Amino acid sequence: MAKYYDIDDIITDEEIVSVIFQKAACGVGIDPSSETDCVEVGSKVELPFWLAHELQPRQAVSMNVPPCFNQNTRLEIQADSACVDLRSRCLYFYEFGCKIAPLVGARNIGPLLLSAFKSRYKEVLTKAHTAAFTAASKNLTILTKEETDLYEAAQSSMAAFKKWRMGGPRFQKSSFLGRKRKSIE
Description:
- By secondary structure, this protein is mainly α.
- The chain contains eight helices and three strands, in the order αββαβαααααα.
- It has helices at 7-13, 49-55, 71-80, 86-89, 93-104, 109-130, 133-140, 145-165, and strands at residues 16-21, 44-48, 61-63.
């Protein structure tokens, strides 16, 4: 919500979260299968994050922890974070986690994000510097959007380094330094 024109931020805010209504709401039409346009107190509904984020400060809803941050995900990340397919759980795993952690009151989301990023960071950079093109496409299928951006930046950095090392533009002596001094006499 802070980055109004950022498409990644807009897509992150479209993530679906499960909420429980604390107040009745009429005329909202959230559930198309319902006969009325009213939502009763205690109803469990799935809403986009941007809407739930706006309703929570008004104490109209309480958000539940999304399934992408549940105990199973935490255990898989602790076991072997490099093999966990975070993309299928949430494309913007880290950004969404940073946005939702203070709202759901789960103190374990922050440490989960930190441990996942720290352990996957080394793997992403190692694979970016060493993987061939065919292996690279396999690696990208399990990476989140943030990790994919990091992977691509590391690959372009490595390509620029190799280009420089193989004879790209080198440091050159300035023409100013090549001039001879005039004698002061």
